[in-house]
From TrEMBL, chain A:
Lineage, uppermost ranks: Eukaryota, Metazoa, Porifera, Demospongiae, Heteroscleromorpha
Subcellular location: Cytoplasm
Pathway the protein acts in: tRNA modification; 5-methoxycarbonylmethyl-2-thiouridine-tRNA biosynthesis
Keyword line: Cytoplasm, RNA-binding, Transferase, tRNA processing, tRNA-binding
Entry annotated with the keyword tRNA-binding: yes
PANTHER family documented for this protein: ATPASES OF THE PP SUPERFAMILY-RELATED (PTHR11807), CYTOPLASMIC TRNA 2-THIOLATION PROTEIN 1 (PTHR11807:SF12)
A Pfam family of this chain: ATP_bind_3
Name of the molecule in the record: Cytoplasmic tRNA 2-thiolation protein 1
Origin: domain of life: Eukaryota
Gene: 100640456
From TrEMBL, chain B:
UniProt keyword terms in alphabetical order: Cytoplasm, tRNA processing
Organism: Amphimedon queenslandica
Subcellular location as annotated: Cytoplasm
Gene3D superfamilies recorded: HUPs (3.40.50.620)
Pathways involved: tRNA modification; 5-methoxycarbonylmethyl-2-thiouridine-tRNA biosynthesis
Gene Ontology cellular component list: cytosol
Protein name (database record): Cytoplasmic tRNA 2-thiolation protein 2
Amino acid sequence: MASAKGIFCESCKEKRASIKRPKTGQPLCQECFFAVFEEEVHQTITQNGLFNKGERVAIAASGGKDSTVLAYIMKLLNERHHYGLDLFLLSVDEGITGYRDDSLESVRRNRDQMGIPLQIVSYSQLYGWTMDAIVRQIGMKNNCTFCGVFRRQALDRGALLLKADKIVTGHNADDIAETVLMNVLRGDIARLQRCTHIITGSDGAIPRSKPFKYSYEKEIVMYAYFKKLDYFSTECVYSPNAYRGHARTYLKDLEAIRPSTIIDIIYSGDSLSVKAEIKLPVQGTCSRCGYISSQELCKACVLLEGLNRGLPRLGIGKANGSNLKEHIKKLQLKEERERESLRGEKEGELEEERVKEDQLVYGGCKEERGLKCSCGHKTDTLSLQTENISLEF
Amino acid sequence: MCSVNEDEVQEVISSPPPLNLDQVCMKCNSEKAVTIARTKDPFCRACFDQYFTHRFRSTFGKSRLIRQGEEVLLAFSGGQSSRVLLHLVQEGLSEHAVKRLRFTPIIIYIDEGVVYGYASERQKSLLKEVSGIIAQTQFPGYFTKLEEVFTGARVWPISDAVLSAGSEQRSKLAAPDPTSSISQGEMPGEVKLKQLFDSLKSSTAKEDMLQSLRRQLLVDIAAKYFNTGKILVGDNATRLSVRLLGNIAQGRGGTIPLDTGFCDNRSDVMVLRPLREFPDSEIASYLTLHQLQSVDASSDHSLPGSSGHSIEGLTASFVHSLQSNFSSTVSTIFRTSDKLQLSEDLVHSGQCCPLCQAPCEESFNEEVFSHVSTSGNNKLLCYVSSHSIGCRLTARGTVHENILELLLKDDSGGSNEL
């Protein structure tokens, strides 16, 4: 952001440049920077056909910089270019004290400042667990797995409540480039293939798109700063994640060498092609909750089951893909054995455990204990949940 | 943004176990282990050799690309990997080999001294060392210079280098003697090459250019002098992992299968990578166990006149540091390349980048990807619109756009005549 004295804006050639654009290195004045940034997002939206007229669009809002700028820009472009969209803010309350409660406050302020209605869905309503409670169970490691898996479903459920046709998220170019690198480092070919798609989940689930696919994080921060947008900028208290951190550092170093690298990585990701003979997981639906899943049970249900049975590590770690089922079986066997050995001594406790097992809680429908959980039918679940959720308009 | 599976990575891997001298070979269960391969398996000397040779052979065998008695060009830089490659081929062709390899190798060395800015003494002594190694193998050996990519891709028998190093006078007798030219001042090709590299500002661009030129020269030589369709190179798993990540970072994702696969068939002459299964550590073990000397011509030197890190250099140190903490890093990255193919768009594009010769897309959406988009300023990027994106990025680093154009024109003209 070197203020270049005496250098003129490369776009209007009238005003003095006040910004060196991170993506291109061009000197620009503030107004032209805004114009270029907004125009790029507009181009991204129209060229990729992200929306149709009259659609209801839920903006996933965390209160952070990306989603705040996204909400602002969506509203701006919607009015400027007559997209004809109904916009909503959609927030997920993971139940993280000292982080989400504060950031939700800034989402509420955005709601008032921008005049976009807000819907909040919470983990405790949907799953019966807050992240705070989960972290007490599992510890600081691996808790991001829960949060990430649960959030995905939570957003979809929130969007269903809003009767939204589309969800937009604030993932920026840096995030996507980083994910490409992560998937290469992990050898996750299925995700590598789809992680740069601008629209995902068009089969079955509510389509999601990323209007900031080509927007640099640095420019988003700049935009928010110069527009004096109200956002929340604290790291999640549970977030430290070593491995992703490596990829992040590497990406930032690359950007320093050649700023276009971020977009080049996305271009690479888009032009990758997976061999036809490579087996990719087939998308089906979860037999328990009906959500899209490549396994018999979706990840959220496996994780929930683990939590509710006091086996929080179920579904975490090496067991992925095809051997997940075996993993669960193994765990069950192990549990069985442990029980055998305990049988003699602790008859009473065993009984208690059995009762606990019967009380599996899914999708927040605790009321239905012992009966077949209604999550099998999405609408039923939702009608059940809406009672607890107030629309905040 | 939280991701879901990072824990998998964290749990699978721990740092490689140090070699415990009490360990017994995991294969024969009788001999003492002397080295660790495949991240954690202890091997005795004999079993390691067997494993190594078998893997080398099977990489060849699977491809079924080399026919009986075929002449094959083997690119020898003197570095560790190509030293191992040379040794493996030598062993495979020797009398006592269990199942002899069936091809006939011709060894070629490229003198890249001009690019690295070596003094002529250093260039000569390197050439002498390399020649010595090649001469020991009894295979026909030749050498060339990188600048030959502009001047008809000539080669000289390695014996010339040995002789001329012995006595300066004799070299003048042979008509197109290359070693003498070093002292006779710069030839046009040399000037061109220097100009080209001076005009590339970033070290990333220089390294990328070096790779393209090297490849082009090898292909030209193979076709022109030896009439062979195959070149063996010593790229190992570690280097290919670095290249894969580096290529992704340079927008070359689409051509990863060509750049890191066993067979690179972008041109009529195929480039084969028979060492692609072996990481650095196993290459080093092989060298030590066989007491092979390598000549490090380039690895200890960065290209002169470039500022800061290159993408490739940064990627290499990133992969190495990850590898030391998570020992399956290289194999994981590397396996990714096995699962990729050239996209349909590229296969049918019919367009080739004149620089790296990889197929490239006809319609590249600059508006969205670009680095550009400020209206009226679209010239920042591609002035050479038919280049692959990776080469456009490299070309963008040139000070004088015309130099690159000029060189390319000369060069493609030359190779078309073949």
